[in-house]
Amino acid sequence: QEKLVESGGGVVQPGKSLRLSCAASGFTFNNYDLHWVRQAPGRGLEWVAFVRNDGYWVQFTDSVKGRFTVSRDIYKNMVYLQLDSLRLEDTAVYYCARHREGGSLDYWGRGTLVTVSS
Amino acid sequence: YVLTQAPSVSVAPGKTAAINCAGDNIGSKRVHWYQQRPGQAPVLVIFDNYDRPSGIPERFSGSKSANTATLTIIRVEAGDEADYYCQVSDIGSDYCLFGGGTKLTVL
């Protein structure tokens, strides 16, 4: 059974860093691209980042470029989102989601909450 | 590129709900729909414009015209009350674009 589990969220001050993890299981990890999507409290879904199945191609939404990085460990079936220079507006639940051929996101984790607060 | 959804739609139980997603030339793109119940992660309910993942009831269907995509839910039930998001993609795209979401209220 396909499963994604995020972890690493917490409360952090502006300007600080945090690393989120996403553990994948139940499918052939190396065959799938993955995305990070976030949702601020009471707001809609916002795409954040993409990492190709081999980890060598990544993309980010403009508001996080230069501050966030994404990587994956193909041996541990893990994806990581490094959040640096955090801002108040980065406060959100961060979801890891599997990219299905055709562009939909067919499996999502439950998310991990990041709160940026002074 | 912007996807526009109405903030809210209300429907009585047993009736039909239509949730629209407007975008310039959306007819040329692949459209996907997600259901998000309060406090839960999004769930894919329609992919590639019209297809349903396994486990999604046949009451859910997708359609689209040149500039509007529609998620239709027939025989609406109380459990369908949720936020619904559209998303578009191009072949080989490495990003996602979501609509603002529509809150479906079952009266």
Structural notes for this entry:
- The complex is a heterodimer of chains A (118) and B (107).
- Chain A has 118 residues and is an all-beta fold.
- Helices cover 0% and strands 52% of the residues of chain A.
- Chain A has strands spanning 3-7, 10-12, 18-25, 34-39, 45-51, 58-60, 68-73, 78-83, 92-99, 105-108, 112-116.
- In chain A, the strands form 2 sheets. In chain A, strands 2, 4, 5, 6, 9, 10 and 11 form a 7-stranded mixed β-sheet that branches. In chain A, strands 1-3-8-7 form a 4-stranded antiparallel β-sheet, with no helix packed on it.
- In chain A, strand 9 (92-99) and strand 10 form a beta hairpin.
- By secondary structure, chain B is mainly beta.
- Chain B has strands spanning 8-11, 17-22, 30-36, 43-46, 60-64, 68-73, 82-89, 97-98, 102-106.
- In chain B, strands 1, 3, 4, 7, 8 and 9 form a 6-stranded mixed β-sheet that branches. A 3-stranded antiparallel β-sheet of chain B has the order 2-6-5, with no helix packed on it.
- Chain B is globular and about 35 Å long.
- Chain B starts with 7 loop residues before the first strand and ends with a strand.
- The mean pLDDT of chain B is 95.
- Classes of the chains: A mainly beta (118), B mainly beta (107).
- Chains A and B meet through strand 5 and strand 10 of A and strand 3, strand 7 and strand 8 of B.
Q: How is this fold's topology laid out?
A:
The complex is a heterodimer of chains A (118) and B (107).
Chain A: E1 3-7, E2 10-12, E3 18-25, E4 34-39, E5 45-51, E6 58-60, E7 68-73, E8 78-83, E9 92-99, E10 105-108, E11 112-116
Parallel strand pairs in A: 2-11
Antiparallel strand pairs in A: 1-3, 3-8, 4-5, 4-9, 5-6, 7-8, 9-10, 9-11
Chain B: E1 8-11, E2 17-22, E3 30-36, E4 43-46, E5 60-64, E6 68-73, E7 82-89, E8 97-98, E9 102-106
Parallel strand pairs in B: 1-9
Antiparallel strand pairs in B: 2-6, 3-4, 3-7, 5-6, 7-8, 7-9
